[in-house]
């Protein structure tokens, strides 16, 4: 399967200028492609093909005085920007035809130099390389210092250089991993586990383990509020406002990085210790419209389950998702009697049928495991029929980062 490995890079002053030039040229080509298609739509003409756009917006545009500076960056960067525009339109049309899962998406819009994230992608055709001293050498940029924290498992097929809202630079490598080697890294086990995700505890496992919720956003809220107040008091367009904006973005990036690191460590631990894992399909969007919205977003359940999915597929584990309407909190895990809904402040209750005293979250985790039908055979493989491995992680130009976190 394909994964992204993201590493922090530290370009010098000249390389930052070259990257800014590449970001700008890629953005202009993308916007020109969107404009050309929009003009064709308004005129009632067929959409121009990628080959035609490449000829008009790149090859011929370089010969004009208005777009001659496109020749200062790698041609691969410009071609990949056209491919991104094509992919955006394909996603939009698939959404219109209900051929795409998930919420509806709108037509591609123009990119701005003020966007929070800027990126350029170099494929193998760009002839980028990693030098002998470990530097990344993309064309017309120069050898950029990389902070390596692990060895890439295979030769990357492409690299995307990204600048985030906080001004940090990353190199995101796409790597094809070996399934046999990945499965060998995780020895088979006969253990299975059900997981109940919540707010009081981030996760309660069916074996009784309770994992506290770190609440990264809540802990950093005071600092974030102060930074945001300082930003709101700065004059628009001033350099002091730019500095204050960076301060806010860095504070948010620190929270996001800590949360992602927590999710990675916990998901890897669960995958390595269990052959089968069961989770509940939570309605995060619905919960995010309640008074618990901030805590729900702070927990990041969707990101955590997404990590479980691709890691389960990568390492040969099984992940089973049960329906969100399964009454896991209303059913006694001992006798199976449904005791009815209970207020959120009731954390422990006694079953009226069998008299068992049940912890609400632990009981729900046991019911999640039972509803998933996870039972282990002697060889350690789940025997429940119909258990489907998680779908592979998509590693297109917009996903960043997936498995590793930059230091």
Describe the structure.
The protein starts with a strand and ends in a 35-residue tail after the last helix. It has 407 residues and is α+β, with helices and mostly antiparallel strands. It is elongated, with a radius of gyration of 25 Å. The protein has a 5-stranded antiparallel sheet with strand order 2-6-7-1-5. The C terminus is likely disordered. Helices cover 39% and strands 16% of the residues. It is built from 11 helices and 14 strands. The longest helix has 35 residues.
Assign the structural class, choosing from mainly alpha, mainly beta, alpha/beta, alpha+beta, or little secondary structure: alpha+beta
Poorly predicted tracts of residues: 375-407
CA-to-CA gap between the ends? 24 Å
Give me the count of strands.
Answer: 14
If strands are numbered along the chain, what order do they take across the biggest sheet?
Answer: 2-6-7-1-5
- Provide the gyration radius in Å: 25 Å
Mean pLDDT: 88
Q: What proportion of the residues is helical, as a percent range?
A: 25-40%
Task: Give the overall shape.
Answer: elongated
Work out the strand percent: 15-25%
Largest sheet: 5 strands, antiparallel
Summarize the helix and strand pattern as letters. Answer: EHHHEEEEEEHEEEHHHEHHHEEEH
Number of helices: 11
